[in-house]
Amino acid sequence: MLRRSIILPVLLFLAAALDGQVPNFIRSSPLGNLSSGHGSSRGGSDSLDFKHRDDLADSITIYYRYMDSLKNDHLDSSLGDFDRFYVDPASDVNLGNTGRAAYPVLFTPELTPGWDAGFHAFDLYRYKLQDTRFFKTTRPYTLLTYILSSGKEQLIKVLHTQNIRPNWNAGVEYRSIIAPGYFSNQNTNHNSFRFFTDYQGKRKRYAAFFVILTNTLNSSENGGITSDTSLSNPNMKKRFNVPVNLGGNTGISQNVFSNAVHTGNTYADFTVLARQTYDFGLRDSLIINDTTKEYLFYPKLRLQHTITYNTYSYRFHDDKVMPDQGGIVDDTAILSAWYHLNLSHASNQLFFLKDKWNELVNDFSLIQYPDKKNTLQFLEAGVRLENFAGTFTASPRPDALIQVYSPKRTRSFYNIVLHGTYRNKTRNRKWDAVLQGEFYSAGNYAGNYNAYASLERVLNGRLGTVQVSFQNVNRTPSYIFNGNSSFHLDSNSLTRNENITVLSVSANNPRFRLMARNISITNDAYFKNLYQTSQFSGLVNITQFVASTKNKVAGHLNLYSDFILQQTAGNNPVRVPLLFTRQRFSFEGNFFKNLFISTGLDVTYNTPYKPYGYSPLLGQFVPQDTSTIRNRPCINLYLDFRIKSFTGLIKVENLNTLNVNHGLDFTNNNFAAPLYPTPGLVIRVGVQWGFVN
Fold this sequence. Notes:
Elements: H1 2-18, E1 32-33, E2 40-43, E3 48-51, E4 59-60, E5 62-66, E6 92-94, E7 102-104, E8 133-137, E9 141-149, E10 153-165, E11 168-179, E12 188-200, E13 206-220, E14 263-287, E15 293-318, H2 332-339, E16 351-368, E17 377-395, E18 409-425, E19 431-443, E20 449-460, E21 464-475, E22 498-508, E23 512-522, E24 525-527, E25 533-535, E26 539-554, E27 557-568, E28 579-591, E29 595-606, E30 613-615, E31 620-622, E32 634-643, E33 646-653, E34 658-659, E35 665-666, E36 671-673, E37 676-677, E38 682-692
Antiparallel strand pairs: 1-4, 2-3, 5-8, 6-7, 9-10, 9-38, 10-11, 11-12, 12-13, 13-14, 14-15, 15-16, 16-17, 17-18, 18-19, 19-20, 20-21, 21-22, 22-23, 23-26, 24-25, 26-27, 27-28, 28-29, 29-32, 30-31, 32-33, 33-38, 34-35, 36-37
């Protein structure tokens, strides 16, 4: 009898779980029907009945927020912008293959005080801690994205999230980029993974966040082509025949399962974060029905502790520094000419530079809420202890014109950082004021600071919001400029702190976005050539205007316009085009109830300018004054469509490279940097599918 009394509730519980019933505890606007199914059936003794499937059974309520944000956001289901599904935005410059070094057209300085390794050319492809989203969902949800492009390039993205309990969510994200490339020795292979979970106690006093993320970025470096005249050679229409500077002209392998990097950069990082909070305040409850009670809590004081452990590894390696047995491959001459490295007496065939860092951060904060009914008004004060340990190795040691082997060198230091925030978003949600600052009071980076102030005003639903902000940062130059770094090949040491001031004003509404910004930098640290460091003695001043608009032309025809206007004063290390624009002429609409279509023309253009050169050994973009790039407008066609939770993507890129001089081909390549051409015709086909479990 006892056994039956136990088994019966268990069977009832399993039946309820399999039926997919989830408590309705999340209050948010639904995304709609993300999937649909065919009819289900149930049997009887003499007949078979068919039950009509209710589409609402597959509906889901899902939203997310970032860890240090109090704003809830929803997944974007809009069409028409391929950038939303891809990894290389149209407003970024990359070196001719997906996953290679890139930087945004809109110049933005490094605004992080304290320690920074200095390797940012591949940041576009990294999962970052500050981008981690914490979800709440009424049903388990999976989002799959797959894009296949010319040259056997593949992009895979996976997102899965579910609420284990009403107050506990967990999920994973994964992204893989495999791009063999179009020229010799430019293949990339990137993998990123993130696990995230957050929990809130039943009485809403305790909360916890936990994140694990890792990135492994592999990019071959060919140093660019040896001469741009090779591109017009009719015998080199197959671009892997074009000679390149590094890695040996070994051709191209489009085997996606063999994407090894023989000459290039391998960057890897790993992060674990654990945050716990406990609130003191006023308790309350809301009676839902006879058996359900919703606990309410109004915090007055929050205790918050965050511990973060990070590892970073930056490595350039070249196994072609000495001739192989056939005497065919040798990068020694190029490395000697570009970096003044004497590798002629190396006893092995591998040259590498490597910086590796371990970082442990403990942060304790007190957060006080003066208004119990407005958690968007608070005062936060805290202290952070940062501990660093760096290891620097090179084989052979790259002392200028000297051939010696380097033992491991290490460096350890700490920082004590005081930080605080005042935030006040009024109850009527019309005003939002933020004051934020951090000061390095002791340690290796004492004197570094960051001060930020912002004021935002909501006008109305039609006019949107206006915002003004100010930021001033005093920072020690990134560690790659430090003589301890294995990548510091210069004898010049940078001793002065950079000081950066940013003033901006912006306006946002459903029709347009406007932004005006001025950036001033003193003691700007930069590489004046492929390896020598310097600090600009004058004032770097950049004025920027950004505008994005949506205009209805007629019927289903729309024009999306983006403009970036930038002007620098005098001769300084910053290299930007005067004007960058992107125009999307789109036919879009909802047809046959569930079919959404967006198709049209996507054109980007920038005015001629002297772009950054690229130092492959250091992974750095460097100013140059010898080559001016005059690219033709980049012309693309696209077709995006969505049927319920399924999205199809087609894009044909670089139609502007059409060449009829030697038959019909696409060999009029544009350039991203001197000696770095961008691809010819590229066709991308992709799908994105959301599943409600």
